């Protein structure tokens, strides 16, 4: 049995979704599908929270727009008026609940994390209902099951939940496995689970990859397939490096590092649930389903150049905190990190010296983070600054730390194109070397590194 995840990029527009339906009919029997929301729906639900708080008169039209999008797609995919009418009747209670939640936050003028998670979870709920009914109208033995009924249990953290794998595995073996036959097509919504107290908790943006891995591990699947509209992991982003090549095999570690540092193929947390089970992850292109794609395995396959890929992220900023004897002063790093954590700000990485702590953050968080630490009393540092004009580059290959000269080759290649490296991290990961450059130097840095190693 496979667990197959289909992302929102593959659920966009009548023609694309029609091709996905045909592919499921051709290759999906006997398998579990974890779905994202239709393309753009999660954003509409999130934006709808702000719209509803601003003016309740906008709520009916907002909900009607989401209703029309789903029903319009259904009318294209379902020929039977009887089946279409049944779908409309099944949809309507969900649209009414969305509307009720929007009116609730409009009345209270507050969107709590709990309420936000409930509202945004409806994109995936509507998606599985739609696809199950479409496949059933084509004569398939198609069903859906919601996380509450499946027993996907989380730690209860809103917007950043983690699955409780022992309980979830036990529940899914009991509640889901008996539903499966060699002809069954079962749809499960991605992106969210249920806490032990019964609350809807989401896995964060892009979390449907992670929830698919949770389902695969819990169901003891043979393989986890991620259906995308791209071939798989590449040696670099083709938009930056047109000659980039497909990576056919890479390790869990390599895939995680690439996902963390900017490759949008996979959510960084996807590997977590399947690592213990040794379940492989296959990236497959829905536009070329017989193509090789990328296979992610437990064991690394080493290339002659060691390096598999050069990846990058522009979503990076540095908060620099200057203080004398940082390494000798107890608790300063913990105090700063704890203060940011309390403010809900994620720290991507930390690089320290004796005079400076450099915190790597998302660009969207940098200004607020700077304000937060300036308000700390007593102040444990003498000055601080924010740097936002940088780009993060990662050189990824499992075992690179065991090969002499990798760092030297990187820095030589970069210096030959007259680029200054602003910060380096080498050693914490067995599969990646990270450094920062000025954002205007990104293109030539990428090109120099790719030509050196790939």
UniProtKB/TrEMBL annotation:
GO MF terms, alphabetically ordered: aspartate kinase activity; ATP binding
Gene3D superfamilies named in the record: 3.30.70.260, Acetylglutamate kinase-like
Cellular component per GO, a single term: cytosol
Pathway recorded for this protein: Amino-acid biosynthesis; L-lysine biosynthesis via DAP pathway; (S)-tetrahydrodipicolinate from L-aspartate: step 1/4; Amino-acid biosynthesis; L-threonine biosynthesis; L-threonine from L-aspartate: step 1/5; Amino-acid biosynthesis; L-methionine biosynthesis via de novo pathway; L-homoserine from L-aspartate: step 1/3
Residue span, ACT domain: 395-454
Single GO biological process annotation from the record: homoserine biosynthetic process
Enzyme class at the top of the EC tree: transferase
Catalysed reactions listed for this entry: L-aspartate + ATP = 4-phospho-L-aspartate + ADP
Sites where the protein binds ATP: 239
Keywords, in A-Z order: Amino-acid biosynthesis, ATP-binding, Kinase, Nucleotide-binding, Transferase
EC number in record: 2.7.2.4
Pfam families membership: AA_kinase, ACT_9
Record family assignment: Belongs to the aspartokinase family.
NCBIfam families: asp_kinases (TIGR00657)
The protein's name: Aspartokinase
């Amino acid at each position: 049995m496979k667990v197959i995840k289909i992302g929102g990029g593959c659920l966009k527009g009548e023609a694309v979704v029609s091709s996905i339906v045909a592919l499921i009919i051709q290759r999906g029997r006997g398998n579990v599908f974890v779905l994202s929301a239709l393309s753009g729906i999660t954003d509409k639900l999130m934006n709808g929270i702000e719209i509803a708080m601003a003016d309740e008169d906008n709520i009916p039209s907002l909900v009607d727009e989401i209703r029309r999008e789903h029903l319009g797609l259904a009318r294209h995919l379902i020929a039977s008026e009887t089946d279409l009418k049944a779908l409309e009747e099944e949809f309507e209670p969900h649209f009414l609940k969305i509307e009720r939640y929007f009116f609730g936050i409009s009345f209270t003028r507050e969107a709590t994390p709990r309420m936000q998670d409930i509202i945004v979870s409806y994109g995936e709920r509507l998606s599985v209902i739609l696809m199950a009914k479409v496949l059933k109208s084509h004569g398939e033995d198609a069903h859906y099951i919601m996380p509450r009924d499946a027993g996907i249990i989380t730690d209860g953290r809103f917007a950043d939940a983690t699955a409780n794998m022992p309980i979830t595995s036990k529940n899914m073996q009991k509640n889901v496995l008996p539903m499966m036959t060699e002809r069954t097509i079962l749809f499960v919504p991605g992106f969210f689970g249920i806490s032990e107290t019964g609350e809807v908790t989401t896995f964060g943006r892009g979390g449907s990859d992670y929830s698919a891995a949770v389902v695969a591990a819990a169901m003891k699947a043979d393989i986890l397939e991620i259906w995308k509209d791209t071939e798989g992991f590449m040696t670099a982003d083709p938009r930056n490096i047109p000659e980039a090549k497909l990576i056919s095999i890479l390790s869990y570690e390599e895939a995680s590092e690439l996902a963390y540092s900017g490759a949008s193929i996979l959510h960084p947390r996807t590997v977590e649930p399947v690592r213990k089970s040794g379940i492989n992850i296959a990236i497959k292109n829905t536009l070329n389903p017989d193509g090789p794609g990328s296979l992610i395995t437990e064991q690394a396959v080493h290339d002659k150049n060691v390096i598999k890929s050069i990846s990058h992220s522009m979503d990076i900023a540095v908060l620099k905190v200057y203080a004398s004897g940082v390494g000798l002063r107890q608790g300063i790093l913990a105090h700063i990190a704890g203060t940011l954590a309390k403010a809900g700000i994620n720290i991507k990485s930390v690089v320290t010296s004796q005079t400076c702590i450099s915190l790597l953050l998302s660009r969207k968080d940098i200004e607020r983070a700077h304000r937060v630490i300036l308000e700390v009393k007593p102040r444990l540092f003498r000055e601080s600054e924010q740097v936002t004009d940088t780009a993060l580059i990662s050189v990824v290959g499992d075992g690179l730390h065991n090969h002499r000269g990798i760092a030297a080759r990187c820095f030589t290649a970069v210096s030959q194109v007259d680029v200054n490296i602003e910060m380096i991290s080498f050693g914490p990961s067995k599969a990646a070397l990270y450094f920062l450059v000025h954002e205007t130097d990104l293109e030539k840095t990428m090109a120099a590194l790719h030509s050196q190693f790939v």
